[in-house]
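Dear colleagues,

For the upcoming journal club I promised to circulate an example of a predicted protein-ligand complex. I picked one with fructose -6-phosphate because it came up in last month's discussion. The inputs are reproduced below in full, followed by the predicted structure.
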Amino acid sequence: MAEVVIVENADAAGALVAAEIVELIDGRPDAVLGLATGSTPLPVYQALRSRLAGRDVLPVRGFALDEYVGLDPAHPESYRSVITRDVVEPLGLDPRRIHVPNGAQATIQHAGDDYETAIDAAGGVDLQILGIGTDGHIGFNEPGSSFASRTRVKTLTEQTREDNARFFDSIDDVPRHCITQGLGTILRARHLVLLAFGEGKAQAVADAVEGPLSAILPGSAIQLHPHATVVVDEAAASRLRLADYYRYTYANKPDWQGI
Ligand code: F6R
């Protein structure tokens, strides 16, 4: 199962995951990062700013998890814009090496296959950052997604549209469709790091980490991965049955073992 690390707050999570990413880039300057959007990964990107300042990060490559379909890439809430604003510009990455699925309607028929080809050509994702939706989605793989799925178009649930309405003027502006890396795509990354904060994520985290493997709870797919790390604050950990064991395990972790 996944390693669960319970931290004091989101900043501590950001510092922990940023340190792992820096170590990865130290060993491999053109490392391939899997980039999530939304609120959850922001502490990681924030922590990376100071840690990567002054370093040559131009070789670093990245693939975003998902994009809305039919939203102008220039729209401030397109994931292309979000990744540019939150990751590429503040960290000084090379925009040509940072990919986001193409949500344009004109090319949507082959956009999924094109994205899979680009990930394969890069040699796969080294470290995939993940958030989790209150309905258990990872990427935009909504409940019912196949564990073998590849990058493709999905219909957002009303729950997800409501959750994401905070980024738009009104819920009517939230697109109904997205293009997302599949669960099978995500499972091919070499290291999964799923973050979650706050009580609102507690049930989804417990179901993903300790619940049955089921397409109804797409996050449970992480249980199939040989190297998955779940970094949560106390509130998001509050429904984990084995929380004490996770704390004990982490406190007694050998120094030579990273996350
Ligand atoms: C974003 C993504 C989604 C979010 C999830 C949680 O690229 O793939 O799975 O991680 O919806 O969103 P936040 O972090 O805003 O709570």
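Two points we might discuss: The domain at 3-188+197-231 is CATH 3.40.50.1360 (Rossmann fold). The chain has one domain: 3-188+197-231.

See you all on Thursday,
B. R.
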